[in-house]
């Protein structure tokens, strides 16, 4: 007897599953019923997960949808209890037990790995290393899920073979959505890390400017120049998603701005030096009574004033130009990311 049945999909990027609306089956007369019960559990859980993934991909942070993670844990527990209650099919308990083991791994990932990911999200923006670690943690959690899902799928195939069931390998709409979401996010993460490294380095430069730390300004200018150039080289190696190079282009524009900013920030560093020099000369000049000031003192002070005024003009012009270009580049980057996500990440509401 050849019975055709759809195989359970190997779950893709972050296939975190949620509660099934299945009642407890008391008995299974055919192997198809047995497969169908477990298959529907996975399908309904995956559907709910897509709601979670869609929420994150369309602008909500993991922290904001933390309630859904807790719902996942509750759902995995209930599903696991249901599957554990299934009898072996004609003495074969391998498929049931593999599914239970799979759900146990899901529980571990959600209760431990993903809980850490939620906490890491709060500090990821503070440094490039933090962001890289955050994304690496996501990848490691995903690897655990994929490996567990693969083992379950292999056991299902063995069960089907024993019972003369031919599994249909055609991809469901839900599977297709998950594959798309996986590929879309992979490309975004690659490009975002390139962007974020220079973006964060610029923030360090701004901090040094605010503190008027000349050595810090110079060091961060050099680092920004280096990171921007390295990022531009890295972008050349990244393949666009479905021939859509919009993210890469927007990131390249940001990095070109950062290169320009590093070059023009010399005027900012020069102004800080002139300001330091002016303050020293002014302090010295003010400390002398007017009757004691020499012509040399007056000339030195006037020169410092002129240098300071010229420095202020150069600083303001440079700062205004950079602020305008930065805002334009960031607006273009943010709008490109939003358009990319809205276009390619499947929306899943229920």
Summarize the structure in words.
The protein has 350 residues and is mainly alpha-helical. It is built from 9 helices and 2 strands, in the order E-H-H-H-H-E-H-H-H-H-H. The chain has a two-stranded parallel ribbon with strand order 1-2. Helix 4 packs antiparallel against helix 5, helix 5 runs parallel beside helix 7 and helix 6 packs antiparallel against helix 7.
Set down the secondary structure blueprint.
Blueprint: E1 3-6, H1 31-57, H2 66-84, H3 94-124, H4 128-162, E2 165-168, H5 173-210, H6 214-235, H7 246-264, H8 266-287, H9 295-344
Parallel strand pairs: 1-2
Q: How large is the count of helical segments?
A: 9
Mean pLDDT: 83
Question: What is the chain-wise order of helices and strands?
Answer: EHHHHEHHHHH
Order of strands across the main sheet: 1-2
Parts with pLDDT < 50 across at least 5 consecutive residues: 1-25
Radius of gyration: 30 Å
Measured by DSSP, the beta-strand proportion falls in: under 5%
Number of strands: 2
Strand count, sense and barrel status of the largest sheet are: 2 strands, parallel
Helix content: over 70%
Choose one word for the global shape: elongated
Query: What would you call the structural class?
Result: mainly alpha
The span between the termini is 37 Å
